Amino acid sequence: MPDPSPGREKDGPRSRSEREDEGLWERSSTGRARRLRADATLAEKMLWHELRDRKFHDLKFRRQQPVERYFADFACVSARVVIELDGWSHEHTADYDARRTEVIERDGWLVVRFTNEDVIEHMWWVLAELTRLLKPDLPVPPHPPTR
Question: Which of these, 35, 36, 46, 81, has the minimum number of CB atoms within 10 Å of its CB?
Answer without folding.
Answer: 35
